[in-house]
Design a protein that fits this description.
single chain, about 100 residues, alpha+beta, 2 domains, about 25% helix, elongated
Length: about 100
């Protein structure tokens, strides 16, 4: 089996990148999240170079990984506005800004 790191996608934030990576790992796809520490120097870089990326560690799994990722990105009713004004995406049921729970 070839081990060629391949960039699967860019995530809007580290929480979502981690969520996707964990979901892929659950399906047996080895992943890693890159650039997760660049947030501290975000002011120094263009925004599109500060976002976390999900990489897969075996390029042969790309097709499966992309299918799973598509499913993750198209889960309905997983985007909501918190009362604090934050838009919470990625399947979270708790606001990462103020820790409020998703309204029922
Ligand atoms: Zn909130």
């Amino acid at each position: 089996m070839l081990y060629v790191m391949l960039r699967l996608t860019q995530a809007p934030n580290l929480a979502i990148a981690t969520l996707w990576a964990d979901a892929l790992a659950t399906e047996g796809i080895a992943t890693s999240v890159q650039r997760q520490y660049l947030g501290s120097v975000a002011g120094e870089l263009p925004p599109d170079q500060c976002l976390p990326e999900v990489w897969i560690q075996c390029a042969e799994q790309e097709t499966l990984a992309r299918k799973l990722l598509y499913d993750l990105q198209h889960v309905p009713q997983h985007r909501w506005h918190c009362t604090c004004g934050e838009l919470v995406e990625g399947g979270f049921e708790q606001c990462w800004n103020c820790a409020a729970l998703m309204p029922l």
